[in-house]
Amino acid sequence: MSKKVSPKTMTKSDAARIQSATAQQNGGQVPAKSFGARAQRVSARNAGKK
Q1: How far apart are CA 8 and CA 27, in angstroms?
Q2: Please, are residues 36 and 21 in contact by the beta-carbon 8 Å criterion?
Q3: How far apart are CA 10 and CA 45, in angstroms?
Q4: What distance lies between CA 21 and its chain's CA centroid?
Q5: Beta carbons of 40 and 17 less than 8 angstroms apart
Q6: The model scores a pTM over 0.85
Q7: What secondary structure, in 3-state letters, does the chain show?
Q8: Over the Cα atoms of the chain, what is R_g?
Q9: pLDDT of residue 48
Q10: What burial class does residue 23 get, using C-beta atoms within 10 Å of its C-beta: 0-12 exposed, 13-18 middle, 19+ buried?
C-alpha cells in the first residue's frame, strides 16, 4: 500500500525563503529558470486562487 501525501501549497513566505537561499548562492541574482523563480511563480498563482 502506498501512502498518500497531501500536497502543501507554496506560500509567498516559502517562495521568499527559497529565493533568498538561491540568491545567496548566485551572487544576489535569482536565475529565471531556477527553483527559486519557479517557487515565486507558483506562490503567486496560489495567492490568486483564494
Answers
A1: 30
A2: yes
A3: 9
A4: 11
A5: no
A6: no
A7: CCCCCCCCCCCHHHHHHHHHHHHHHCCCCCCCCCHHHHHHHHHHHHHHCC
A8: 13
A9: 85
A10: middle
CB atoms within 10 A of CB 37: 16
- Residue 24, C-alpha cell as written in the block: 545567496
pLDDT value of position 27:
96
User: Rounded to an integer, what distance in angstroms lies between the CA atom of residue 30 and that of residue 23?
Assistant: 5
Q: Residues in the chain with pLDDT < 70?
A: 1-6, 50
Which residues touch 14 (CB under 8 Å, ≥6 apart)? 39, 43
